[in-house]
């Protein structure tokens, strides 16, 4: 099988790219999606809000997903569901598995838009037993919104990111009444959550509190909570692990492609290119986790870069200038390789802080400050710094000087 | 296939040992029932191990354990192709990291040779690092045991069980033996699934072996001392860091921490050895997992870059003595198979033959073979084949057809845990983030421990959720 562009993942980023490429007449555009339906994560998020940026209205996840897929179809892209990409190879060439077995596909360019997932219990180093009833938000939303089923009635919720709020709403839909919400850190991780707290459906919230161990044999019977080294027991019949997203970068890992420890995603240049010829990446795969709208915009941007690549109009990767992060306060900065101007370039650097921070961000090259900006940033906030107008070929360093 | 007066043999416990014993007796023509207290089989000691098919190179010379490991290993090699069971004959490297350990190597090699293991190659640090470039530079020396191999611990045990069933054995799950009486020529067992009569009872109750012995005879000649082993599992890219099983020079008390690949393509670091009271609770302790992580990195520095996908813990049915605790009391119609501590997976088939011999039976009938599904990473996995009906578990690439097969196997999966062991669903890096809903749909009404239940209908507004 052959395509001009193959897109892996039919979430907001992949579908936006497919529609844009098809509209630009980039040839045969094939979207490969392992689920039975296109749409990505929003497909099983029953709740709002989606769609403000893309369609200028607030929609539920399922409707939003359907609308994105329809747009890609209308523009002429092909969406192949129940098709898993099992390997990416130089060429570009993909190995696929579908109900018909394995097949190969070669393409002029490939866009990886495989999204993110939440961290599992082990990645959070939670001790204890392994009974049934330990789920992530993604799994719970699938059960509640797609199956109208619930795995527990009185779970403990771990985390306070935006997605934790979404988890609370899903609980409400399923008639699940969480016993408590706990956040290991000293602050709520999402300001939106804070604003809504008073109305949080009577769920108690404890900061500085983590889950040390899970108990139960067949089903969860309780957890040991821990605060300042002191532990106590809480009865619960489930544990809901929310957030702590990481990139779905399996294909990259197997192909030995460089990843960034801060983002967990691939190292990209400003055109979204990764370390294998003809391959691009966009959406939450790049870094957990931005809104669907932001991923959609990234998909469209990647489409412009891919179209330029196919007609030989992208600057050579050799012209790249590495961006290095010189502060522990900064969790990550993206793209990792800056490029001169061209179609579909990331024109701004995306930055996330590890902790609430106040001070000055600077882009520095050879001791010359190229860009400087005062910031007051929380971890749940994306900071955007414009690319310098002009830069030499030496590495550009991102510095942060804290002020008190 | 119960006879009017009951079964010839009742095997208590469907761990790997009980399954192998049931297989042996069933093939020999006996009518067999397997009584298991769990929702599904392999839910005791056999649910978690390092999955190494040992050679017995470090077993006590002259012991029954050594005989059973050698015989079990040989029989596995003999039958595995007909059952479609995998074998990765990767070999093991026993590694010395200190002067003291280096000094212990000659005696260990000597013991291995005395135990009848032929291919023992001493290796210098340089040779070791040429064989395994990922090894830390501080390795001092070691030797290679070519026949130490990796297998699929669950497919093997399931195969033994399915083969027993193909020979007429009955499996009863949720049938906990709660007591029993020896009558004139048979046992009358009380189980939570009703009474059961059998001429011969084989107690293969693993972690509860002494308890079951006391239920049946009022006493036990051994005491189970559960010993926990915790493991961490690295995601597949880590498996490129070593081909061999990396063993330490054993300490006074334990075999020590092993680093090895799994047949599924991951990499394990573990187990620990921790004495405890509880026979059910194999709890994970974050600090211990952290220690394992550090230990792993000292052996294979490349692990620092690798992602952990899972952790698990198992309980060894150790007793107050090191040896296997196998005893036949034929006048009482009872064979006790206890204390199969840390080599039961390798020895199971050998133990089964030993037990059948104790009972005075031998093979008489042609054997029915059956083919197990392929779960090893490099085997002909179903996702590669036409008609697989699509992938459900994306991390482990488990197809709908494989799940359906496990739900309608000779001993079908009754719990999610049982389904995991038969197919590997949800055992990968996402631990169910992507496939939980789909799995719940497929298994609905088919597990005795369901994954989910209908949502409550809330009164009032349909909400934003
Ligand atoms: C629980 C939850 C609630 C959220 N709520 C909101 C909200 O209210 N508003 C909002 O704006 N955002 C929300 N988000 C974020 C939003 O859903 C994501 O930002 C968006 O879906 C990311 O789009 P994407 O295209 O990058 O990835 P995804 O939507 O994750 O899509 C990736 C797709 O790739 C497919 N895929 C992966 N690997 C392969 C492969 N090897 N072969 C084939 N296909 C593959 C996957 O099946 C998936 O369909 C939420 C996220 C979560 C998890
Ligand atoms: C950490 C660890 C690592 C190991 N690594 C290896 C290895 O690499 N290679 C190797 O060869 N071996 C290894 N082993 C050892 C091996 O796993 C064990 O020897 C083996 O699983 C013991 O099996 P079993 O059938 O005797 O016991 P079990 O698996 O415990 O089976 C006993 C069964 O009896 C049932 N039962 C108990 N009481 C009753 C009752 N009253 N009525 C009915 N049923 C009952 C239980 O539910 C259970 O299913 C390891 C073990 C551990 C814990």
From TrEMBL, chain A:
Pfam families referenced in this protein's UniProt entry, alphabetically: Pyr_redox_2
Keywords: Oxidoreductase
Keyword Oxidoreductase listed: yes
Domain FAD/NAD(P)-binding: 4-299
InterPro entries according to UniProt: FAD/NAD-bd_sf, FAD/NAD-binding_dom, Metab_Enz_Cyan_OpOx_G3PDH
Listed GO MF terms: oxidoreductase activity
Keyword presence, Oxidoreductase: yes
Protein's name in the database: Thioredoxin reductase
Species, as recorded: Paracoccus isoporae
From TrEMBL, chain B:
Transmembrane segments: none
Molecular function GO labels: oxidoreductase activity
The keyword Acetylation appears for this protein: no
Protein name: Glycerol-3-phosphate dehydrogenase
Domain called BFD-like [2Fe-2S]-binding: residue spans: 391-442
Chain intervals for the UniProt region annotation (Disordered): 446-465
Pfam families referenced in this protein's UniProt entry, alphabetically: DAO, Fer2_BFD
Keywords: Oxidoreductase
Species the sequence originates in: Paracoccus isoporae
Superkingdom, natural source: Bacteria
